Amino acid sequence: MKKWHLLLYILMSLMLAGCWDQHHLVNKTFVNGIGYDLTEEGNVKVTVRTVNIKGKGGGQFDVEDILLFAEQEMQIGLGTEIDSMVAGEVDFSQAHIILIGDEMAKTGINQLLEFYYRGKDANIAKKVAITKGTAESVISTEIEKSPIAFFILQAIEGGENASYLPDESISSIWTKLLTQGRDLLLPYMEQVTPEKIRIAGVALMDGDKFSGKTLTIEQSSLLLLMMDELKKTSQMYLVLDEAKDESIRISTKQVKRKLDIEVDEKNGNVMASINLKLKIGIDSYPHNLNKNINQNELSQKISRELTKQAKEITNILQEANCDPFGIGLRVSTTYPETWEKLNWDKDFKNVTIKPNVEVEIIKTGSIY
Amino acid sequence: MMGSQISITKFQLLMVLIQTQIGIGLLSLPNVVQESARGDGWISILFAGVVIQFLLIIYLKLLKKFPNDMLTDITKKLLGKHLGTIVNTTIYFYFIFTGSTLTILMIKILNEQLLPLTPGWVVSFLIIASCVYLTVSNLRVIARFFVLATFWILVLICITVLSIWLPKEIQFILPVGSAGGKNILLGSNNALLAMLGFEALLFLFPFVIGNTKGMLKTVSYANLFVTSFYTFITFLCLVTFSPEQLHQIREPVLFLFRGLTYRMVDRLDLIFLSIWIIPMTTSIIMYLFLASKCLAGKKKSYKNAVIINGIILFCLSFIPNTDKITDTLTQYVSFLSYTIVIFLPCLLLLLSRLVKKRRSGGFV
């Protein structure tokens, strides 16, 4: 009886799952950054940065950074083509960043990202950015040979913490692409010099297509506050009076946003008012240094300036047909009958958006 | 009749019911309920919980009349030997069928998400072998294991709490009640299927110590826990994913964790699924136990019955798990479950009342 048991245990241990599903690190080539572009002939071109790990023996590894290209009529075959170029199997699960060239993005991004939604190995927590010019130009930039994908990832995450980039990953992008009446903002990257890349601001998306319009980092800081998305810090600098050379750098500590929507059910006019109450600290105000700050006067000045800028931002958003506040979503849930009659793609431009910003200075730093 | 060897306490019954109810059904539940109930899917689940509560009350009314009998004995007493045997065979098929469907679904999801290269039969062999190993020992051992396994459910709840930090949009479920009563009911119908397992009470009742009073409280706690856990997770999915997106995702609960990322850990869905193997297996263990009890009755052939049923489950798990076949299987299970879980106990309760009246009438 005991021997029979032993035999059973041996048989069972042979069936342990690890024997089938084992993956060796050294057999894999990890893709850590992907760029999609539309070529002039209308083909899809993919540029990937991969890390090839080679065992040197003794537990030591050599890491190689390789740049690969593939071009096909449709994006569907690109993975196989990349796979045929590398040693071992290609692993997309560690791709941290997906860059999409502006021309490609104008034709729609949902189809490009489908692979990452469906795939079992795909990491949907990764970041997506739109690039000025080709994605290839950004991703092939050499920054001291360190994997560029990590540099881009860190830059984007830094931007998210400083509240000038929206916190979007593939999973949240997918949600927003499939939400009616709410649009997406994506980071906008550009290559400044052949060795340098930077975040230029945010790209405004109209549905899953890039509208071609962008906001600068200064504008997107205010826009994210208007969307009530303050992360760790948020800094802005304002020119209050050009003639007197009066400028200020402020950081927002607290945001209270109220988004009210009124719908005229007869003619279907939609009015949205965004009331923003900011509690700010002053980081730098190199003006009238011989006096203490007159907080009331100054906060009124800042409020006026920010309200003016907010109006400019909403105008650009309406030109781009990009609704990041989810005004359409609110209308669709609170006024379903009116929503049925509206054609949001066209009617968003006619929405009256009234932004109003009020600031209260709560900190002035070490000096009054 | 019932020896002290195979009795369980009320607390153990609570855990057994929870473990049997919670299982693979949860993973796709948000998708299934929102198909008809849209943003009101969470109401559907609450309503399904209410329906289950009513069923549990009916079960207890029936079982209190026969405190020492399992369902299979009650059918024989009330329906007569021949009809009783036919009904008991149907019950047996229901348990085997449900058990094998759960196994097939579990192998499918493990093969798709965790172990793509491992042959399906190896996975099913490992699962069923461990199920049989636990089930051949008596009910008390099973109950103790289930109590222990509940610890993992608490871990899973902790992991679930992490997904609260994903971006949420409350507008997705507004306005509440917009789906309409009919669609919410249809959603409840689907939710009930994912919450099956409470029918184990029909077989466990005679084994519980002190089953004369306080039973309603115990089973209600089990139902309350399962319903609130399911409602909570479905609610999370409904506010995280947009309706069109939820419509496309097969296992929204796993996607909930896929979007989470931390410096140290990534792909929480794989961790969640690895732990979720335990609640999935406990459901299979319970169905294996129920099928074997059905087959063996009060006779001593219980151990053999477990082994035979284990082999049957293993053979049935070779049914290819393509999307089409699993869909048909779940549909058959739902038809059978309505007969066994809802119709049969109600009928038996009605009959038991009639029989009692006739008897008392006869005495007069």
TrEMBL record, chain A:
<keyword id="KW-0309">Germination</keyword>
<keyword id="KW-0472">Membrane</keyword>
<dbReference type="InterPro" id="IPR008844">
    <property type="entry name" value="Spore_GerAC-like"/>
</dbReference>
<protein>
    <submittedName>
        <fullName>Ger(X)C family spore germination protein</fullName>
    </submittedName>
</protein>
<dbReference type="Pfam" id="PF05504">
    <property type="entry name" value="Spore_GerAC"/>
</dbReference>
<dbReference type="InterPro" id="IPR057336">
    <property type="entry name" value="GerAC_N"/>
</dbReference>
<keyword id="KW-0732">Signal</keyword>
<dbReference type="GO" id="GO:0016020">
    <property type="term" value="C:membrane"/>
</dbReference>
<feature type="domain" description="Spore germination protein N-terminal">
    <location>
        <begin position="21"/>
        <end position="190"/>
    </location>
</feature>
<feature type="domain" description="Spore germination GerAC-like C-terminal">
    <location>
        <begin position="201"/>
        <end position="365"/>
    </location>
</feature>
<keyword id="KW-0449">Lipoprotein</keyword>
<dbReference type="GO" id="GO:0009847">
    <property type="term" value="P:spore germination"/>
</dbReference>
<dbReference type="InterPro" id="IPR046953">
    <property type="entry name" value="Spore_GerAC-like_C"/>
</dbReference>
<keyword id="KW-0564">Palmitate</keyword>
<comment type="similarity">
    <text>Belongs to the GerABKC lipoprotein family.</text>
</comment>
<dbReference type="Pfam" id="PF25198">
    <property type="entry name" value="Spore_GerAC_N"/>
</dbReference>
<feature type="signal peptide">
    <location>
        <begin position="1"/>
        <end position="17"/>
    </location>
</feature>
<dbReference type="InterPro" id="IPR038501">
    <property type="entry name" value="Spore_GerAC_C_sf"/>
</dbReference>
TrEMBL record, chain B:
<feature type="transmembrane region" description="Helical">
    <location>
        <begin position="119"/>
        <end position="136"/>
    </location>
</feature>
<feature type="transmembrane region" description="Helical">
    <location>
        <begin position="145"/>
        <end position="166"/>
    </location>
</feature>
<keyword id="KW-1133">Transmembrane helix</keyword>
<keyword id="KW-0309">Germination</keyword>
<comment type="similarity">
    <text>Belongs to the amino acid-polyamine-organocation (APC) superfamily. Spore germination protein (SGP) (TC 2.A.3.9) family.</text>
</comment>
<feature type="transmembrane region" description="Helical">
    <location>
        <begin position="221"/>
        <end position="241"/>
    </location>
</feature>
<feature type="transmembrane region" description="Helical">
    <location>
        <begin position="12"/>
        <end position="29"/>
    </location>
</feature>
<dbReference type="GO" id="GO:0016020">
    <property type="term" value="C:membrane"/>
</dbReference>
<feature type="transmembrane region" description="Helical">
    <location>
        <begin position="83"/>
        <end position="107"/>
    </location>
</feature>
<dbReference type="GO" id="GO:0009847">
    <property type="term" value="P:spore germination"/>
</dbReference>
<dbReference type="Pfam" id="PF03845">
    <property type="entry name" value="Spore_permease"/>
</dbReference>
<keyword id="KW-0813">Transport</keyword>
<feature type="transmembrane region" description="Helical">
    <location>
        <begin position="302"/>
        <end position="320"/>
    </location>
</feature>
<feature type="transmembrane region" description="Helical">
    <location>
        <begin position="41"/>
        <end position="62"/>
    </location>
</feature>
<keyword id="KW-0812">Transmembrane</keyword>
<dbReference type="InterPro" id="IPR004761">
    <property type="entry name" value="Spore_GerAB"/>
</dbReference>
<keyword id="KW-0472">Membrane</keyword>
<feature type="transmembrane region" description="Helical">
    <location>
        <begin position="191"/>
        <end position="209"/>
    </location>
</feature>
<feature type="transmembrane region" description="Helical">
    <location>
        <begin position="270"/>
        <end position="290"/>
    </location>
</feature>
<protein>
    <submittedName>
        <fullName>Uncharacterized protein</fullName>
    </submittedName>
</protein>
<feature type="transmembrane region" description="Helical">
    <location>
        <begin position="332"/>
        <end position="351"/>
    </location>
</feature>
